[in-house]
Amino acid sequence: MTEALNHKDYDLLLDLVKTRSSVRSLKSDPLPEGSVEKIIEAGHWAMSGANSQPWEFIVVRDRETKLAIQEAYKEVNIDYAYWMEQQRIPELRHPSFHLKGDPYEQIEHIKSRAKWADAPELIVVIGDGRRQWGTVMAGHTFGRDQSHLTDGLANCCQIMHLAAASLGLGTQWITIHIQEPYRRILNIPDIYTIYLIIPVGFPAVEAKKGVRRDIEDMIHYDMYDPGKFISNEGILDYLAGLRGKTLEKYRVSYGEGK
Ligand SMILES: Cc1cc2nc3c(=O)[nH]c(=O)nc-3n(C[C@H](O)[C@H](O)[C@H](O)COP(=O)(O)O)c2cc1C
C-alpha cells in the first residue's frame, strides 16, 4: 500500500485534473527538449492488466508525416463520421457535424478545421495485444473482447494528457478507430492496434472551463439507488442537453416517431 497522501498532494492532483482541458488549437512553436519524453515517462507508469504494459509510442516530428496523417484523418475519419452522424436527428448530432447547408460544403468546412498537424509533435499510441496474454483474459472478459488492451491504453493516455498539462502544454484526444491509412503511413506492423493520436503543443487559445455532471447524480452508497436510474428517453434528453438542445424541438419536428 502506498503511503497515505496528505491534503496538499490531493489538492495538487485535483488542481491538475481540473485545469487540464482538451486544447484544439496549438501553436507550432517547438517544445522544450525532452517534453514528450517526460510525458511518455509519466504515461508508462499507468496501470495495466497483469502489468502487461501493452503500449508503444511513435513520436512524429516530421512535418510531411504529420500532414500525411492529418490528411488521412480528413479523408477517412471525418468523411465517415459525417455520414454516420447524418443518421441521427439533428439535435443529437455531435456539434461539429451539426451544420447547415450543402453536405459536401459542410464536409469541406469540417475538414478545414482539423489543424492539429500544426502541433510540433504528435504522439501516436499503439498497443500490442499479445502483451495482454499476460492477463487472465477469459476470466476478465468472458473472451468477448479485447477491452483489457484498450483499458490499459486509455489509462496510459489519460496520464499523458495530465503530464502535458502539468508542463503547461496542450493536448487533444484524436479518436481514429480506423487503422489502415495510419498503419501504411507509419509503417506499423499489423499486430498492433493504433489507439490514439495526441498532438502536443503550446496552447494557442485560452483553456476552457471544464463542465461535468453533478457528483451526487453518479454516486451510490452501499447499493445502486434506483431513484438515480435514467430511462432511455432520459438519456436522449441528457444528450440533447449536452448539445444545448431540447428534445421538445425534436418531438415537434419529428412527431411521435422515436
Ligand atoms: C474516448 C474519448 C474519445 C475522444 N475523442 C475525441 C476526438 O476525436 N476529438 C476531440 O477533439 N476530442 C475527443 N475527446 C475529448 C473529449 O471531447 C473531451 O475530453 C470532453 O469533451 C471533455 O472536455 P475536456 O477534455 O476539455 O475536459 C475524446 C475523449 C475521450 C476520452
* Name of the CATH superfamily of the largest domain: NADH Oxidase
Can you tell me the CATH architecture of the largest domain? 3-Layer(aba) Sandwich
Number of beta-strand segments? 5
Give the SSE string: HHEHHEHHEEHEHHH
Bound molecules: flavin mononucleotide
| Average pLDDT metric | 90
CATH topology of the largest domain: NADH Oxidase
Distance N terminus to C terminus?
A: 51 Å
Helix content: 40-55%
Instruction: List the domain count as a whole number.
Output: 2
How is the quaternary structure best described? single chain
Strand portion, in percent? Answer: 5-15%
**Shape summary:** globular
Gyration radius, rounded:
21 Å
| Uncertain regions spanning at least 5 consecutive residues | 252-258
Number of helices: 10
CATH class value of the largest domain: Alpha Beta
Largest sheet composition: 5 strands, antiparallel
Which structural category fits the helices and strands?
alpha+beta
Topology:
Blueprint: H1 7-19, H2 35-43, E1 55-60, H3 63-85, H4 103-112, E2 121-128, H5 137-141, H6 147-166, E3 170-171, E4 174-175, H7 180-186, E5 192-201, H8 215-218, H9 232-242, H10 247-254
Antiparallel strand pairs: 1-2, 2-5, 3-5, 4-5
Helix pairs in contact: 2-6, 3-7
This protein binds flavin mononucleotide (FMN).
